Amino acid sequence: MINKIDVETELNLANSTILVVDDQPINIKIVDKILSSEYKIVAATSGDQAIELCNKNPPDLILLDVVMPYMSGIETCVILKQRLSTAEIPIIFVTSCEQQDEEEACWENGGVDFINKPINPSTLKNRVKAHLTLKYQRDMLSGLVFIDYLTKVYNRRYFEEHITKLENSSNREKQDSALLLVDIDNFKLFNEVYGHIRGDISLKQVAVRIQDTLMRPSDFVARLGGGIFAVILPNTELIGAISVGEKIRRAVLAEQIAHPKSSVKFLTVSIGISTVFTAQKNIVTLLDDAEKYLSHAKQSGRNMCKHPQLV
Fold this sequence. Notes:
The chain is α/β, with parallel strands linked by helices. The longest helix is centred in the middle third of the chain and has 26 residues. It is elongated, with a radius of gyration of 23 Å. The termini are far apart. The N terminus is likely disordered.
């Protein structure tokens, strides 16, 4: 008897992307020949190139050569594990060295497994499948734990687990990151006029509009409760965050969801924007700073973004 769950897992694994990182193109070709009939294979010949590819489009799994010039596999792994958007990608080290110290370094720096050269095709296939299966199962579990049941975006628990990581990552990498707090204006009055069923529909519409505005894999939106959403933008300075905030505000207004208690007669949002570095200047947390600017937006008439440059 065919297990429906097993079939679903197999179908999802077939859509997996594997990044192969090796400074020797011949080694990449060997892996491609073994795995390309089952998975999508992308390649990088250096640690820098691998990091750039992961930032643009994170793969499901990485096969990473240990010994490479300029930036070793271990150094590449450390950088990927420090970044919020790439930290959860499983990394299998590929090595020709049998020294115990190198093996220990692979485990200590975030590798989930390692494969010895020359590569045994059967070993490679089975270990890749095993770790992709584990990742798929973990992602499914995360969906149950971290997804808001109504809007299908991330929930408050997911946000709270990542906000501190975001601040730490920004300080470590010396790259600013942004938080946008998006609050539906007069949402309580909207529910009083139309009822909670209509209110739930509008929440879904707003969540979709916010999600559609985000362009990078590392950006995400979470519903914090009621009509409040948080948008996380890693590696984003204030000017970029303001641009995203205005796009979100205009996108929600363009939906033209009728709201008779609104001054513009449509559902709108107010947005408070802060970044890690601007918050530190005020000696407050990123969340406290964004809440302050959200309050300014509400007090100034709603349907607007507020941030350090406008106060």
